[in-house]
Design brief:
InterPro entries: ELO_fam. This protein has 135 residues and is mainly alpha-helical. Helix content is 68%, strand content 0%. Helix 1 runs antiparallel to helix 2.
Length: 135
Protein backbone atom coordinates (compact mmCIF):
# COMPACT_ATOMS: atom_id res chain seq x y z
CA UNK A 1 0.00 0.00 0.00
CA UNK A 2 2.95 2.29 0.62
CA UNK A 3 3.85 2.53 -3.08
CA UNK A 4 0.29 2.89 -4.33
CA UNK A 5 -1.35 6.19 -5.12
CA UNK A 6 -4.16 7.34 -2.81
CA UNK A 7 -7.64 6.46 -3.97
CA UNK A 8 -9.80 9.22 -5.39
CA UNK A 9 -12.96 8.91 -3.33
CA UNK A 10 -14.65 12.26 -4.04
CA UNK A 11 -17.87 10.73 -5.34
CA UNK A 12 -17.94 8.05 -2.65
CA UNK A 13 -17.38 10.66 0.06
CA UNK A 14 -20.09 12.94 -1.30
CA UNK A 15 -22.59 10.09 -1.30
CA UNK A 16 -21.44 8.96 2.17
CA UNK A 17 -21.65 12.49 3.59
CA UNK A 18 -25.08 13.08 2.05
CA UNK A 19 -26.29 9.78 3.50
CA UNK A 20 -24.91 10.72 6.93
CA UNK A 21 -26.58 14.15 6.81
CA UNK A 22 -29.93 12.58 5.92
CA UNK A 23 -29.58 9.69 8.39
CA UNK A 24 -28.48 11.82 11.34
CA UNK A 25 -30.91 14.61 10.47
CA UNK A 26 -33.81 12.17 10.33
CA UNK A 27 -32.74 10.55 13.58
CA UNK A 28 -32.42 13.94 15.28
CA UNK A 29 -35.79 15.07 13.91
CA UNK A 30 -37.62 11.94 15.04
CA UNK A 31 -36.13 11.90 18.54
CA UNK A 32 -36.71 15.66 18.92
CA UNK A 33 -40.30 15.27 17.74
CA UNK A 34 -41.13 12.47 20.15
CA UNK A 35 -39.32 14.03 23.12
CA UNK A 36 -40.32 17.68 22.77
CA UNK A 37 -43.42 17.82 20.55
CA UNK A 38 -45.23 14.58 21.43
CA UNK A 39 -43.73 14.61 24.95
CA UNK A 40 -43.80 10.83 25.16
CA UNK A 41 -41.92 10.93 28.45
CA UNK A 42 -41.19 13.22 31.37
CA UNK A 43 -37.94 15.06 30.59
CA UNK A 44 -37.06 15.39 34.28
CA UNK A 45 -36.98 11.65 34.81
CA UNK A 46 -36.79 9.83 31.49
CA UNK A 47 -37.28 6.12 31.97
CA UNK A 48 -37.33 3.29 29.51
CA UNK A 49 -40.79 2.21 28.41
CA UNK A 50 -42.01 -1.02 30.03
CA UNK A 51 -42.05 -4.16 27.86
CA UNK A 52 -45.74 -3.97 26.99
CA UNK A 53 -45.83 -0.24 26.20
CA UNK A 54 -47.22 0.77 22.81
CA UNK A 55 -44.08 2.78 21.99
CA UNK A 56 -41.50 0.21 23.14
CA UNK A 57 -40.94 -1.03 19.58
CA UNK A 58 -40.33 2.54 18.36
CA UNK A 59 -37.81 2.99 21.16
CA UNK A 60 -35.99 -0.20 20.12
CA UNK A 61 -35.95 0.76 16.44
CA UNK A 62 -34.52 4.22 17.19
CA UNK A 63 -31.79 2.77 19.40
CA UNK A 64 -30.91 0.11 16.84
CA UNK A 65 -30.74 2.75 14.10
CA UNK A 66 -28.45 4.86 16.28
CA UNK A 67 -26.22 1.87 17.04
CA UNK A 68 -25.95 0.93 13.35
CA UNK A 69 -25.01 4.50 12.52
CA UNK A 70 -22.19 4.44 15.08
CA UNK A 71 -20.79 1.34 13.37
CA UNK A 72 -21.17 3.05 9.98
CA UNK A 73 -19.22 6.03 11.35
CA UNK A 74 -16.15 3.76 11.43
CA UNK A 75 -16.07 4.10 7.63
CA UNK A 76 -14.55 7.56 8.15
CA UNK A 77 -11.35 5.88 9.26
CA UNK A 78 -11.39 3.49 6.29
CA UNK A 79 -11.77 6.43 3.91
CA UNK A 80 -8.86 8.25 5.58
CA UNK A 81 -6.63 5.20 5.11
CA UNK A 82 -7.65 4.68 1.47
CA UNK A 83 -6.99 8.36 0.72
CA UNK A 84 -3.69 8.19 2.66
CA UNK A 85 -4.85 11.07 4.80
CA UNK A 86 -3.15 9.76 7.91
CA UNK A 87 -2.95 13.12 9.68
CA UNK A 88 -6.72 12.94 10.24
CA UNK A 89 -6.44 9.61 12.04
CA UNK A 90 -5.75 10.85 15.54
CA UNK A 91 -6.05 9.13 18.88
CA UNK A 92 -9.18 11.17 19.59
CA UNK A 93 -10.75 10.11 16.27
CA UNK A 94 -10.11 6.41 16.88
CA UNK A 95 -11.08 6.60 20.55
CA UNK A 96 -14.33 8.43 19.77
CA UNK A 97 -15.52 6.05 17.06
CA UNK A 98 -14.53 2.87 18.89
CA UNK A 99 -15.95 4.07 22.21
CA UNK A 100 -19.21 5.24 20.64
CA UNK A 101 -19.68 1.96 18.75
CA UNK A 102 -18.90 -0.37 21.63
CA UNK A 103 -20.32 1.97 24.27
CA UNK A 104 -23.63 2.27 22.44
CA UNK A 105 -23.80 -1.49 22.05
CA UNK A 106 -22.94 -2.14 25.70
CA UNK A 107 -25.46 0.39 27.01
CA UNK A 108 -28.20 -0.98 24.77
CA UNK A 109 -27.31 -4.58 25.62
CA UNK A 110 -27.02 -4.23 29.38
CA UNK A 111 -29.29 -1.29 30.23
CA UNK A 112 -31.85 -1.57 27.46
CA UNK A 113 -33.25 1.25 25.41
CA UNK A 114 -34.74 4.59 26.33
CA UNK A 115 -34.24 6.83 29.29
CA UNK A 116 -31.61 9.54 29.36
CA UNK A 117 -29.65 7.80 26.59
CA UNK A 118 -32.15 9.42 24.23
CA UNK A 119 -30.64 12.82 25.03
CA UNK A 120 -27.13 11.58 24.19
CA UNK A 121 -28.34 10.23 20.85
CA UNK A 122 -30.22 13.46 20.18
CA UNK A 123 -27.17 15.66 20.73
CA UNK A 124 -24.80 13.31 18.92
CA UNK A 125 -27.08 13.16 15.88
CA UNK A 126 -27.32 16.95 15.78
CA UNK A 127 -23.54 17.35 15.95
CA UNK A 128 -23.01 14.74 13.22
CA UNK A 129 -25.64 16.36 10.98
CA UNK A 130 -23.85 19.71 11.19
CA UNK A 131 -20.42 18.08 10.84
CA UNK A 132 -21.32 16.13 7.70
CA UNK A 133 -22.95 19.20 6.14
CA UNK A 134 -19.60 20.94 6.60
CA UNK A 135 -17.63 18.13 4.95
Amino acid sequence: MRNRKPYDLKTVLRVYNLFQVLYNGLHFGLVFYYLFIERICNLHCMESFPAGHERKQLERVMHTAYLLNKVLDLMDTVFFVLRKSYKQITFLHIYHHVFMSFGSYALTRYYGTGGHFNAVGLLNSLVHTVMYIYY
